[in-house]
Design a protein that fits this description.
By secondary structure, this protein is α/β, with parallel strands linked by helices.
């Protein structure tokens, strides 16, 4: 930790000299043609891979690079340039897999061409389209080839978006990519002009062209791996000693989280600065032998100290591994987080604080090669505060002119694209451009809005004061002009009789109600009601509480209910709350396996309530423990589950719950009434028949059988006596257990398994979908179509493929109209791939069955009522809130509502296509219902009073005004008894009605 002892300039210069000598002596990573095959991950990549394995992947790790280009754009030249860029830099076509239990990277063949879709779009619609495209997830195991999208606003006005995964590049890499793309584009657009050397230049190497063979990131990773042991232990000991006793800064969290938190998880405040401020900061740095970055970082420490009143502070910065000319032109991830711990006590002058920060920065740079995740692992549980918050929750940086794609003949304008939640709770930034500003970005779930405004104002005031005041003023005087009113610090919750955990749960934006009880002789228990299905899980809610409360205040379990039972006076009735057994220690095979797993991987036998991190656990051990338990118990479990549950008792309870769910599903399958004509070998009750040889003649391969639609498909196929081959993960095989059903283990990411299953089947029904990973869906469809050689193929698609049609009536096979959601676009691409192959090389007919909302008596289909458009109605009725629905005629449309299909009717329609393919597209619709009528039905079934009013203002989720024709499958879609709107809604709201009418 830095002290008050100022370091003399000569001493600082000596430290810098030694650092340069070490950097010069360090061998550089150079291409090695002898290195072939898989390469180890670099330290930075390993962290990113681990986040993916733990479930922390997603839009936060996408790197969108968008530029608005005014002028003529040659899209074919851009595609050629991207193709060549990906060929040159192997890291842009690399996938990440495991070999012998260790992650590694494998370079994929260079693509022959690069797809650049062009979408006509009004500039006003661009932010939503760009955000949706940037938010599509990458599948690291399939590869991280960047994606391209061009929005055409006018013939000479385009926005170009390139989306990369952060595991492939960092900030400096983006500058390399932009520079090379411009040169490659010029070559493709004007090959003769680009190849002609400039006067006086070397004809063999035109100056506009990138270097012949850039350094490859895999070589850098190999070099780093070979040198990994050099100084790592010493570096870890240094960081451990430096950060011992440090705690994350306390930030004032929101008392009532914003209601739009899901839609806008990140906030920012920008305060313009005088144009003279950056120059004044540079002059201040020159006087003290400090860079502008160090001055801005010191200002961030001063602002954080002023706003929180804390002296011992930690702020993270981004360090880099880029050193030497050998890494020039390297595209890849070469960053590391460096935690700087600085003492701001004693009301020091800014110059004194600057000296402390500079010393801490120089010290950190001497040990910048130590991966931050290894530092966190070494520190263990102490790397988090008592309330569970991360040690580095605040960062700082200086932001220069953003990188843009400058293509010849066009004017470039940077375009900001949001990609979800911020990675840190609070980030300070000095915008050092011709329009200087002080910027704060923050997670709205972690920082109060008013406090965030005050942080930004204080940071701006400090930066401004430095340009006008002497730097020997104490901080208390320097920041007097930045006074601001702050909300209470975290922990100072509203005063009432409720438990702190209950108050926090009530404030959660995804919960509508909550209570916490402390049963006699048992652990603290929490009960919560989600605003909509698809919200946080019980484990995620416990993690939310752990992040904000002392360990003794965190309930042992959170149970989700549809509604809290209440007495006549409106208070919660504890007698009707479901209880959990309170045992002194968990017992049984699950508890034994958990205890043995903890002991084997952590080196000591844990108590039932010992904390995973306090025992020395870290993220990689969490992944290993989850995999060990998953293999031993054949139950679904992830590393994130371990990190959220944390104790053997909680992990055992989680496994017990999942085993109970599996047993219930197996019992339902084993006791399902028999149907005439069904065939298949007998298996023990509740056990799926695992496939041992070639499937029987007439076998239908079904993907997605574990889902709601898949369940009805399996019932329909069984009723017709058709043998079935069902694709399922090992831990989910029980969900498809039934006579006549053989299980082939796998999922959409197992492309070889998919091909083999298709080859062994005589017909295919493809109903599986990831919903959020279109690249996985498309790769799966490619693999299945490639293996398809006989019989019919039916694809369960979606009416989302139609996009936003111009008229209100949508005929089958009508063309798509932009904008399409990423989900709808993926379905359209899969349809096109299937229909092109139909009838060729012995293949049978193909049918793409497009469905709307699917309703039916199934746990997964019940979710359909509680999220999305119908969720807006359901939650408003459940909570007694008024709701405005679109008035007929509003926005020029005569009707607003939803199309729906009963799952059983959809199953009949899909199965009918096996015998009578539609050879194209067909819609599967049971009916259409207006929002007003749907709300009325729901209110009657829920026993609530609906408070609807019609309005000319249209809620975005209720802006649906299309009727879909469904003539081609009209016969199998005809409703059977119990498939009317009211019956299906009743069966979804009341699980006791979960039954199907008998077939005649």
């Amino acid at each position: 930790m830095a002290t008050d002892r100022p370091a003399a300039p000569a001493f600082q210069e000596e430290l810098l000299r030694r650092a340069r000598e070490r950097a010069a002596a360090r061998p550089a990573a150079r291409p090695d043609s002898a290195d072939r095959g898989p390469a180890p991950l670099s330290r930075a990549q390993h962290r990113m891979w681990l986040m993916d394995r733990l479930g922390h992947d997603g839009a936060s790790y996408s790197v969108p690079f968008a530029t608005r280009l005014r002028g003529p754009l040659d899209v074919d030249a851009l595609a050629s340039a991207l193709t060549e860029l990906v060929r040159r830099h192997e890291i842009l076509r690399t996938r990440y897999v495991e070999r012998d239990g260790e992650p590694c990277q494998e370079v994929l063949p260079a693509p022959g061409s690069f797809a650049v879709p062009v979408v006509p779009a009004d500039p006003a619609d661009a932010p939503a389209l760009l955000g949706a495209e940037a938010g599509r997830r990458f599948d690291l195991s399939a590869g991280t080839v960047p994606r391209a999208l061009v929005l055409r606003h006018a013939p000479q006005d385009h926005t170009v978006l390139l989306t990369f995964h952060h595991i492939s590049l960092d900030g400096p890499s983006l500058e390399i990519v932009a520079e090379e793309l411009a040169a490659l584009y010029e070559t493709a657009a004007h090959p003769r002009a680009a190849s002609a050397p400039a006067p006086g230049s070397d004809p063999a190497q035109p100056p506009s062209q990138p270097q012949a063979r850039p350094p490859q990131y895999a070589d850098f990773a190999r070099h780093e791996h070979r040198a990994a042991a050099d100084g790592l232990d010493a570096g870890l000991r240094h960081w451990h000693a430096l950060l011992e006793g440090a705690a994350p800064p306390r930030l004032p969290g929101p008392t009532h989280p914003p209601t739009d938190l899901t839609a806008r998880p990140t906030g920012s405040h920008t305060t313009p600065l005088s144009p003279e401020v950056p120059a004044a900061l540079r002059e201040l740095g020159r006087r003290h032998h400090a860079t502008p970055f160090t001055v801005a970082l010191t200002a961030a420490f001063a602002a954080l100290h002023r706003c929180t009143g804390q002296d011992d502070l930690v702020i993270g910065i981004a360090g880099t591994h880029r050193r030497g000319t050998a890494m020039r032109g390297l595209v890849g991830l070469c960053v590391n987080t460096l935690p700087l711990r600085v003492d701001t006590s004693g009301d020091p002058s800014f110059s004194t604080l600057l000296t402390r920060v500079r010393a801490a920065l120089l010290d950190a740079q001497q040990h910048a090669d130590v991966p931050f995740d290894r530092i966190v692992d070494r520190i263990g549980a102490a790397a988090r505060g008592a309330d569970g918050t991360s040690l580095v929750r605040v960062t700082a940086d200086v932001l220069g002119i953003p990188t843009t794609l400058r293509l010849p003949g066009t004017d470039a304008e940077y375009v900001e694209v949001g990609v979800g939640e911020a990675k840190f709770d609070l980030s300070f930034g000095l915008v050092d451009t011709d329009r200087p500003a002080a910027l704060v970005q923050y997670r709205r779930a972690a920082l109060d809005e008013e406090a965030a405004t005050a942080f930004g104002a204080t940071y701006a005031a400090v930066l401004t004061a430095l340009g006008a005041a002497t730097d020997d003023l104490p901080l208390s005087h320097l920041t007097k002009g930045a006074d601001a009113q702050f909300p209470p610090q975290i922990g100072a919750l509203p005063e009432d009789d409720a438990h702190p955990a209950e108050r926090l749960l009530r404030c959660h934006p995804d919960l509508s109600d909550a209570t916490v009880v402390s049963p006699a002789g048992g652990p603290l228990l929490a009960y919560a009601v989600l605003r909509e299905i698809g919200g946080p899980s019980p484990a995620e809610l416990r993690a939310h509480l752990r992040d904000r409360l002392a360990p003794g205040l965190v309930p042992a379990a959170v149970t989700l209910l549809d509604v809290l039972p209440r007495s006549a006076d409106g208070t919660v009735d504890p007698a009707h709350l479901p209880g959990l057994p309170a045992l002194p220690a968990p017992e049984g095979p699950h508890a034994d396996a958990v205890r043995e797993g903890f002991a084997a991987l952590l080196g000591r036998t844990p108590g039932p309530d010992d904390d995973f991190f306090a025992l020395g656990g870290h993220s990689l051990v969490a992944v290993q423990l989850a995999e060990r338990l998953r293999r031993a118990l054949t139950l679904p479990l992830t590393g994130l589950d371990i990190m959220q549950a944390r104790t053997p008792r909680a992990v055992s309870a989680l496994l017990d719950a999942r085993a109970a769910e599996r047993a219930a599903a197996s019992l339902r399958a084993a006791t399902r009434p028999g149907q005439p004509g069904r065939t298949g070998r007998s298996t023990p009750a509740g056990q799926p028949a695992l496939r041992t040889g070639r499937a029987r003649n007439g076998t239908v391969l079904v993907t997605g059988g574990t889902g709601g639609v898949g369940s009805f498909l399996l019932q329909e196929l069984a009723a017709q006596g058709r043998p079935v081959l069902a694709l399922a993960r090992p831990e989910s095989a029980h969900l498809v257990a039934a006579d006549g059903v053989e299980v082939v283990e796998g999922d959409l990411t197992d492309l070889d398994g998919l091909r083999k299953a298709v080859q062994d089947a005589d017909a295919v029904i493809h109903a599986a979908c990831t919903f959020t990973r279109p690249e996985v869906d498309m790769a799966a469809m490619d693999a299945m179509v490639d293996a398809w050689s006989r019989g019919p193929f039916v694809f369960v698609s979606s009416v989302d493929v139609y996009g936003h049609p111009v008229g209100g009536q949508v005929a089958e096979e009508s063309p798509s109209h932009e904008p399409l959601s990423p989900y709808g676009r993926a379905k359209a691409d899969c349809e096109a791939r299937l229909l092109r192959a139909a009838g060729t090389a012995g293949r049978g007919g193909a049918s793409a069955v497009r469905s709307p909302l699917v309703w039916g008596p199934h746990d997964r289909l019940r979710d359909q009522l509680r999220w999305g458009a119908t969720g807006v109605l359901y939650q408003a009725i459940s909570e007694g809130r008024p709701l405005a629905v679109p008035r007929p005629g509003a926005g020029g449309h005569a009707w607003y509502g939803a199309a729906w299909v009963h799952a059983a009717a959809l199953a009949r329609a899909v199965v009918s296509c096996l015998d009578a393919p539609v050879h194209g597209v067909a819609n599967a619709i049971s009916g259409h219902v207006t929002w007003h009528d749907l709300g009325t039905e729901l209110s009657q079934l829920l026993g609530a009073t609906a408070d609807f009013k019609e309005s000319d203002e249209i809620h975005p989720d209720l802006d649906h005004h299309w009727h879909y024709h469904s003539d081609r499958l009209a016969r199998p879609l005809r409703p059977l008894p119990g498939e009317d709107l009211r019956s299906v809604l009743a069966s979804m709201i009341n699980p006791s009605l979960d039954r199907q009418p008998g077939r005649t």
